[in-house]
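User: I want to check something. If I give you two sequences, will you return the structure for each one separately, not as a complex?

Assistant: Yes, each is folded on its own. Here is the first sequence with its structure:
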Amino acid sequence: MSVDKIVRWFMPKEERFHELLALDTKNLVKAARLFKEIAELTSLEERRVKAIVLKGIEHDGDGITRQIFEALNSTFITPLDREDIRSIAMDIDDILDYLEGVAQYLILFELSESPTVLRQFAEILVAMTEAIDHATGLVWDLSNEKKIGDAIVRISELENQADLLYNGVIADLFKGKRDPVEILKWKEVYQGLEDACDTCKDYTHILGNVVVKNA
C-alpha cells in the first residue's frame, strides 16, 4: 500500500459521520411527528396501527446507531471527539426509545383519550427534535456557533415548558376522586414524555461541549 493510500485511510471520514448523524436526527423528527399524530387520535385501533409504524422507525434508529458505532470502531481519526459522537448517538436512541415506549403504554393500557396535555407534550417534542436536527447539522462548521447556541437556548426553553406541564398534570392526576389504576397508567405516560424532554435537554450539553472543544 502506498504512503498516500495509508494517509487517506487514516484521514477523518467526516462525510461518513455527517451523513449518519443526519439520518439519525431526521429519523428522530419523523418519529416525533408520528407520535404527535398518535397523541391526537381518539381511536385505540388507529393508535395501534400507527404505533406499529413508530416501532419500525425505532428499529430503523437502532440500525443507524449500530452503523455509527461501527464507523467509530473502524475510523482511526474522527471529525469530532469520539465520545461526543457516541453520546450524540446514544441520546438520539434514548429519545426515540421513550417516544416508542410511551406509544406502547397508550396501547397496552388501552388509553384512547387525547388529553390537552398529551397533545402539548407531543408538540413540544416535535419542536425539540426539529431543533436537535437543525443544530446537529450545524456542528460540522463551527462558524455556526451562534446558531448552535440559539438552538440550545430554544431546546432549554421548551424543556422548561415541559417541566411546567409535567408538574401541573401530575398534581391534577392526584386531585379529586380518580381511579388509582388510571392514575398510575397516565403517570407512566407523562413520566415517559418528561424523560424524553429531559434527554433532549441533555443532548444540548453534548452540543455545547462540541462547540467548546472545537472553538
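And separately, the second sequence with its own structure:
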Amino acid sequence: MAGSNRRSPPPRPAPRPSAPPERERGRRVIDPAAAIVAPRPGVRQVTGPMFIDTAAGTFQDLRPPAPPTLSRREFEAELQRLLRAYAADEENPGSIQCEGCRRSVSCMFCTDCEECYRCTHSKGCRSSTHLTHCAGCTGCHDCAYCVSSENCTRSNYLVRCRACSECSYCFGCVGLTKKDFHVLNVKYTRSEYFRVVRALEEELGMGR
C-alpha cells in the first residue's frame, strides 16, 4: 500500500496561556483587585501615665491636676514663711560632736559653723562644704588648713585669700588659679615665703 509508507505529522505543542497584557494603548493595565488598598486603622497617640480601656477604646488620665497658679503676692508670702521657718531651725542632721553649729549637715568635730556640709575639725565657717581644719572661711569648698578665706575651692594652706582655686600656700591673694607660695599675688621661693609670712603674722597680730 502506498499510503502505509506515509509518516504521521508530529503532535502540535499545547498552546501557552496568554499572559495578561502589560500595556494597552501606551497605558499600563493594573489589576483592579490589586488597586484596592484597605484603609489604615485610626491611630491615636497617647502619652503620659494613664489607664487605657482596650475593650471600649477609651482612656482615663491619671496624672495629678496642675498646681494652681500663684499670684506674686502669694508667692512672696509663702517664700518668706519658708525662710523664717528655716532660720528658726538650728538642727544639725547627721552631724557628730559639733558645738555651737547651726543648720550644718553631716559635719564632724566642728565649732560655731553655720550652713556647712561635710566639714570636719573646722571652726567659725559659713556656707562651705568639704572643709578640713579650716577657720573663719566663707563660701569655700574642698579646702584644707585655710584661714579667713572666701570663695576659694580645692586649695590648701590659704590665709586671707579670696576667689582662689587649686592653690597652696598663699597669703593675702585674690583670684589666683593653680599657684603656690604667693604673697599678695607675688611669687616667692619656699624659704622666702615662710619668712615673709612669719613677719606678716607678727605685724598683723595673727599669732598663729
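Because they were folded independently, the notes below concern the second chain alone. The longest helix spans residues 72-88. The first strand starts at residue 23 and ends at 24.
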